Every structure is written in C-alpha cells, then in structure tokens.
Amino acid sequence: MRLRTFPKGGVHPSENKISAGETIQVLPIPSRVQLHLGQHLGAPAVPVVSKGDRVRVGSRIAEGKSFISAHLHSSVSGTVAKIDDVIDASGYRRPAVVIDVDGDEWEADIDRSPELIREIKVDAETIVERIKAAGVVGLGGACFPTHVKYIFPEGKRADTVIINAVECEPYLTSDHRLMLERADEILVGVQILMRAARVESAIIGIEANKPDAIEIMSRKARSLPGIEVIPLKVQYPQGAEKQLIKALLNREVPSGRLPLDVGCVVNNVGTALAVYEAVQKNKPLVERVVTFTGRHLPATGNFLVRLGVPAADMAAHLGIELDEETAKVISGGPMMGKAIAGLDVPVTKGTSGIVLLSESHARRHQVQNCIRCSRCITVCPMGLEPWLLEKMAQLDRFEECESAGAADCIECGSCSYTCPSSRPLLDFIRYGKVNVMRIRAARRQK
To answer: Last residue of a domain, which of 224, 257, 281?
Structure first.
C-alpha cells in the first residue's frame, strides 16, 4: 500500500524515538508549582486569586478575558504564595501564580474515576462551553485555545475533523504512548469534537513508524461511524496543519487562510483526550504527558506531569543530573522546540517534551557562504525560498520579506537542517517574520 504524504518538500531527520517503549509514569507532586498566566496563544489570563487564598486541584485561578485566551486552573491543592514574574521557557520573566502545596485535594465536581463514559449527552454549544471552562488548548505545541476553533464565523462550516497523531518531531513519544494507553478515551474525545463541529467525518492521521498505535486505534475505531484511521508516510513536517490536510484530504489551505476555509478543523490527539476529560469528567487541563529524553541519558521516560512542575523533577525521578555532557536543553522537539536555560523551567500546557542534547549533537557548525545549491528551496514544505528570506531579513528589508512570503513560513527548520553551509536560515527568517507581523499590525491601526 502506498502511504499518503504531502507532495512538497520535507526532510527525514533521525527519529530517535528512544522512549517509545516507556509506559506513562505519574510524576510525584512537588512542594511548589509555578503556573504562568500565558500558557496559550493570545492574551494572558487574568488572575482571580490573591496571595493567601486556598485552592484545590481544578480551582480556577485565572480567567481568559479576551476572545483568544484560555482559563487557567490550579494543578495542586495548597495556598497561593504569590503572584509574581517567573522565568519561563523563553528566558524572560512572565507573570505567574505560585502555589505552595499542602496535599492533593480536588474540586468535588471533578470525576476522577477510571470509568469510561461513552455516551455523549450534551449538544454542540455545551461542548464548546465545557472545553472553554476547562482551559483546553492545543497540546501539540501551538497552544491555540481549542474552544475558539469551534466558534465558526457566519457562513463558515466544516465537513471533517482531523486528529493530528503524527508526532513527526524526533525524540517525542508522548502522543504515541497516549494512543497505546488511552485509546478509548481519545476516540470518545474525537466523537465529541465531531459533534462540536457538526460533522459526520473524522480522520486520524498516524505516521507509519507507529504500527502498534495504528493497529490499536484502527481496531477500536472500526465500530465508530465516521472515524477513519489513515497511516501516513514518515516525512517531517507532516504534523504541520497545512501539510497534514494536504496529505489526508488533498486540500490546499491558501496563503493567509485557515483550515476552516477548506472545511477542516485540526486538533492534536492529546487535545482529543483533554476534551474527553473536560466534557465527560468535568476535569480542567491541569496535567499533561511529557517526554523526557536524550541519546546520552542513562534513562528516559514519558510522564504524566502536573502543570507548573519544574522539568528538573523528571530528571530527578530518573536519577539524572545535568553535567558537562549535556550541552543543550530543549523544550519541545529538536526541530521546532526552543532551547531553555536549564531544568528549573516549569511545565506548561504546551510542553510536549524535554530533550537533552550532548555537545556532539548540539554544537553548531561554522557558518559558510551560501553556495546557491537550492537544497533549502527543495525541502521547504511551503514552497518558499529560504536563502532569499534570510538575505532580506539580514538587511532589514522587511517589505521584501513580506513579498517573498515570510508570513507563510511554518518554522519547521527543514531549511536549516539541510543546508550544507550550516547557515542559520530559520533564525533570520523568524526575525524577518516577526517584523512582517509588526508592519501588518501597524497597517491595521492606521
């Protein structure tokens, strides 16, 4: 059988799915958590608690006041120690609610039983409200508030829900483990999303390097009308929305448009599980599965981690200490993740993995002159000219960056990965893209 994929560009980095065989472990609760108010795309949440307030697991501690925002809930029970600026994964100090832990008392209306609830008793509007109330965001990394995707503008409609179970980033295995261990809940979550979108069809795309996940998800989906599991060719960045839509439905999302413009809504497989828990169990998003891994480490793992827990706790649980052999720590995968200063950074809704790289894998090679080989053009899944975007950004010619399509860059890093001259193409494209967005924002204000 010929496997589907997107037709333009892409690369094949070493998979390094070292932790794929590690079952999900529950990480112990620490003595203190730090919950950043901006764990989602859009405006940061606004605190509704004060220093000294007592909270339980699931208590709402901050509210998303803007249209694109998300509520935030306490992941522990304890006392609010302070609301202060705390360093996040970007290295900047951001507002956060700091809670001292005194136990593990949950809000009484959260169903913590293991019972699977298959019957969906609520309508589309109620589903969207429950997703919003639970603070669910996209768990694939973009962290877009999930409820917003299901508030369709007038005249727009979808015909298909797409579940992104690709997990094409090297090293990461959290989605893989979720499918093996929580398939039933995920599939109910898919049915809930179908009802929210008012569609009869859902497609779950899984790359072919996860045959066990394909088998279990396909077997369990056979009895569920409208849900299809489709294996995909292993090709990075297949998990990007536009590439996944092209691979599964052969529909192309135009420049500057959204999946809904071609009749699709896309959600990560972990988001489907969070939606199940929000709608069927009244459970807010207070924890997620995180991969902790690295080729030089003596042990790796997949952990169910409460939000706000420092990444160092996963290392300590595995008996790992940072030493001179670890040259870089990445939040997310090595292709699209961000380097962080250390393991004291707290886990957020968007933390899919913590990857430690040794000196030999983290070291950047000396930058050479561009040899006009066109490899960066060949691998770009958006059909851009990365070498040109790099040059325009270097010269601060942002209007030309815009004309050359900088805003369409999905920041997958394929260009930098394949460049024989080791040029930091993506670094400059990101710089150009940020300034293109700034220029566009200035135009809208005029």
So the answer is: 281
**What pTM was computed for the model?**
0.95
How many domains does one find in the chain?
4
Non-local CB neighbours of 436 within 8 Å, separated by 6+ positions: 398, 401, 402, 406, 407
Residue 386 lies in a domain: yes
Q: Name, in order, each residue with C-beta under 8 angstroms of 262's C-beta and a sequence gap of 6 or more.
A: 245, 249, 251, 252, 253
Q: What does the DSSP assignment read for 226-251?
A: TEEEEEE---BTTTSHHHHHHHHH--
Counting beta carbons within 10 angstroms of the beta carbon of residue 419, is it exposed (0 to 12), middle (13 to 18) or buried (19 or more)?
buried
Residues 145 and 228 in one domain: yes
Domain housing 85: 28-103
Answer yes or no: do 254 and 154 share one domain. yes
Q: Is residue 228 part of a domain?
A: yes
SS (H, E, C) 154-176: CCCCCCEEEEECCCCCCCCCHHH
In this prediction, residue 1 carries a pLDDT of: 66
Which tokens in the block code for residue 437?
A: 């967005």
Go through the chain and tell me how many residues it has: 446
Classify residue 1: in a domain, yes or no. no
Q: What is the pLDDT of residues 293-305, one digit of tens each?
A: 999 999 999 999 9
DSSP secondary-structure letter at 292? Answer: E
Cα–Cα distance, 205 to 244 (Å, whole number)? 8
- Domain membership of residue 126 (yes or no) is yes
* Opening angle at CA 195, ends 191 and 199, nearest 5: 100
pLDDT tens digits for 293-346?
999 999 999 999 999 999 999 999 999 988 778 889 999 999 999 999 889 999
CATH number at residue 44: 2.40.50.100
